[in-house]
Amino acid sequence: MSAGSVAVVVDEEFEVPSWELYELSIPCTVFGKPQPDLADPWYDLRLCAVGKPQHAGQGDVPAENGLSLRTRYGLDDLVGADTVIVPSVPDPCVDEGRPLPKELVTALRRAYDGGARMVSLCTGAFALAEAGLLDGRRATAHWMHTAQLAARYPKVQVDDSVLYVDDGDVFTSAGLTAGLDLCLHLVRRDLGAHVANQLARRMVVPAHRPGGQAQFIDLSVPTTDDSSLGPVLDWARAHLDQPLSVEVLARRAAMSPRTFYRRLQEATGTTPLQWLLNQRLGRAQSLLESTTLPIDKIGEMSGLGTANNLRHHFLKQIGVSPSDYRRAFPAKGAAVNRGA
After folding, report:
1. Are 178 and 271 in a shared domain?
2. Which parts of the chain sit beneath pLDDT 50?
3. Which helix (H) or strand (E) holds 49?
4. Is this prediction's pTM over 0.85?
5. Range(s) of the domain holding residue 302
6. Does one domain contain both 176 and 46?
7. What pLDDT, in 10s, does the model give residues 252-293?
8. Is the peptide bond before 99 cis (omega within 30 degrees of 0)?
9. Are residues 198 and 227 in the same domain?
10. CATH code for position 319
């Protein structure tokens, strides 16, 4: 497995507001810091500027609050990269309809035609849409801008309910922290769940957040105190191989099934059964990567049941069979359980 090269677009046509540095910092943190104990080589990161590349000793890119950026790469360096990421576009391009630089749009098309995996974070979706790369595709952006995206690009199937969209070779995410969710998803696809989980742990964030943007649109903070869910969810993760139902979990939480259902959905944006399925799939992925146990044993230990049931859920939720997943992310030095 190879991590590959990642080219991140830095826009020099306008001053970069300080709040947009968050989206820029996400791919720099995920893909730019070597993690030799997790994967070696790690990603090869380059920042590619719109306009002439800046070299050390030359003028800085103007930005608010006294911040400046330098990079020796330009838009020509997008072509040939394995992954191209547009973290955001300037506010005037979103709010006022100011045109994006033509050279950026052209470079994005050339990179895609050259086989690059195309990624947008937050309002970066406007750049991919302008390049025609989202036509006929499902895509997302920050929920505050999805209506504008849909109105401006009617050929795009805009979904404002999800954290990110994986459309095979084109990826889009919602705003801010959802960009981190997507970048960790890319690491998971490239290097496996174990590497993504360890990287997330180092960044002190969840490796995978179930649910979508819907949990944030109307209320940024749930009014329900869900701290009582922590112990029962931890217990459920430790007993995934056992039959679990809403009634069982509600009883552990000392709630009625209806109250438990509502509390969990408010806290995670997903139903209890979908939450359980996500946890069981995660357990199965970990077992496939770290052991050589038979598929039917992994189905049993993860609570997904028979080998056929495990295959069904893997194909539906992850897009590959358990056997193909194991071949892509083989266990290194895993002990075989001869009694399984």
Report:
1. no
2. 1, 13-14, 53-66, 211, 214-225, 333-340
3. strand 44-49
4. no
5. 221-340
6. yes
7. 999 999 999 998 887 777 789 988 998 898 899 889 888 999
8. no
9. no
10. 1.10.10.60
